[in-house]
Amino acid sequence: MGGVAPHGSxxxxxxxxxxxxxxxxxxxxxxLSLEAQExxxxxxxxxxxxxxxxxxxxxxxxxxxxRQGLAHMEQRGRALxxxxxxxxxxxxxxxxxxxxVQASA
Length: 105
Prior knowledge:
By secondary structure, this protein is of the alpha+beta class.
């Protein structure tokens, strides 16, 4: 499983990430929920958090989070849905995402 950052990993002791997440990736991760959401809904949540994001950038971040096992992706017809994964690696990533967002505020 990978970390939040593009080249991050959870290969460190206790599954801790070895590279800190970017503030934008952190904001996206923190806007996910355990319930599946369409990209439009996630985009609205990121915007309400105070940072507009380009749709292609958001889609790329969400797909990366899914590849890293931090989110789940589901195709329903033509729409993509994403939800937060569960587990210790996700908990570590959420803690690091929260710290990254607080540090960039």
